[in-house]
Design brief:
Layout (H helix, E strand, L loop, with lengths): L1 H10 L5 H18 L3 E8 L3 E11 L4 E2 L6 E2 L4 H14 L24 H6 L11 H7 L9 H9 L15 H15 L3 H13 L20 E2 L8 E2 L9 H4 L2 E2 L1 H13 L5 H7 L12 E3 L4 E3 L2 E8 L2 E8 L4 E7 L10 H13 L7
Antiparallel strand pairs: 1-2, 1-12, 2-3, 4-7, 5-6, 8-9, 9-10, 10-11, 11-12
Length: 361
């Protein structure tokens, strides 16, 4: 709490009462519609104020209220770390963004035509293992199983490519797991050690971690999901996250995601040239100029950042350069309300109040 209070004070005074009341109302309505157990929200807009709020419970069994310092599984926000490590290593001349995959591994079809850049901006064509129904049944039959990165990539590459390398766009977890394997080969280190050395320590991300086994650092929010073989509700808190690897394994908090989203969207750890590469948008369908993907980062009506989902958890962390605004939403459920995931839905409702000219879709 002390860190978050310091963040709020450093950026601006609290929002004006009328503004806070409007945000409270939008949050209350969106949170109720999400039917999620709990949510943690942070909004920081220099010159306008800051807003930090919690709603609901972190544990549906004990009814423990949500805590602002609770740890969450951040899912695909992990990709922003993986992409940043790629750009750091490119700055260090240890690899090139346009190096072919075949330079590092010999067992990927079309590896001579797929580049590291294509893995990172989702234009590789590699089919996502998480879209393989047979794999899903196996994974959901044993939530304690420890998956190796190679096992995951093998599932993805046994399917035909979604399109030839560089000739389409499709979100692929296979691409990011393979990228993580290559980064480990380049550094000669485990990915968690490189994250700690190159990212966590320089930015003082003390509450962001690569989980050991299926445990979460305390305090943590318990995650509720319907991602089960029988579609019944389940506590997904202690499912082993090894199946996500560098596509989605990390754990973090509101305070650390505030620091992190500002860092990578402004390029504090990489050169201006590498940041330019990061923000080169892939606008081919289903993307569009107002909503597109770069190297491990999205743009959505001006907001830069990423969403993340792992069973039981759904998070959004974005930065709006025009106002230097930050918004982080962390929910301990991944269950959609209708067709919409909870964290992006809540963020959209809040943006309609605080940045009505920039509302992510």
């Amino acid at each position: 709490m002390a860190l978050l209070a310091a963040m709020a004070t450093a950026i601006a005074a609290d929002m004006l009462p009328e503004r806070r009341a409007a945000i409270d109302a939008a949050l209350g309505k969106a949170f109720a519609a999400s039917k999620a157990p709990g949510v943690v929200v942070g909004i920081w807009i220099p010159g306008e104020g800051s807003y930090i709020a919690i709603r609901g419970v972190s544990d549906v069994k004990t009814r423990q209220p949500m805590r602002v310092e609770d740890h969450f599984r951040i899912g695909s926000i992990t990709k922003t770390f993986t992409a940043t490590l790629l750009l750091i290593l490119a700055d260090e001349k240890k690899l090139g963004l346009d190096d072919p995959v075949s330079k590092y591994v010999a067992w990927v079809a079309n590896g001579d035509k797929i580049t590291l850049r294509m893995l990172a901006d989702m234009t590789s064509g590699l089919h996502s293992y998480t879209e393989d129904d047979a794999w899903v049944k196996i994974a959901f039959s044993n939530f304690k199983r420890v998956w190796t990165p190679r096992e995951l990539v093998d599932v993805g590459i046994k399917s035909p490519p979604d399109f030839p390398p560089g000739q389409g766009w499709h979100y692929s977890n296979t691409s990011y797991v393979l990228l993580g394997m290559i980064l480990e080969r380049v550094t000669g280190k485990k990915i968690q050690d490189s994250f700690a050395e190159k990212i966590f320590r320089p930015l003082k991300l003390m509450q962001t971690s690569w989980p050991v086994g299926d445990a979460l650092p305390k305090p943590y929010a318990h995650g509720t999901t319907a991602q089960t073989l029988d579609d019944k509700l389940d506590d997904a808190t202690n499912r082993n996250p090894s199946w996500a690897f560098t596509a989605g394994e990390l754990v973090s908090t509101l305070a650390d995601l505030y620091t992190w989203v500002v860092s990578y969207t402004t390029g504090s750890l990489v050169s201006p040239e590498m940041q330019k590469q990061r923000l080169t948008w892939m606008t081919m369908p289903p993307n569009a100029p107002e909503r597109a993907y770069g190297i491990g980062v999205g743009i959505d009506h001006g907001w830069l950042g990423h969403t993340g989902e792992l069973p039981g958890y759904n998070c959004s962390a974005f930065y709006l350069p025009e106002k230097k605004a930050v918004m982080v939403v962390m929910v301990n459920s991944d269950i959609p309300a209708g067709k919409n995931n909870p964290a992006p839905t809540i963020m959209k409702a809040l943006a309609q109040v605080v940045t009505p000219e920039n509302v992510p879709q």
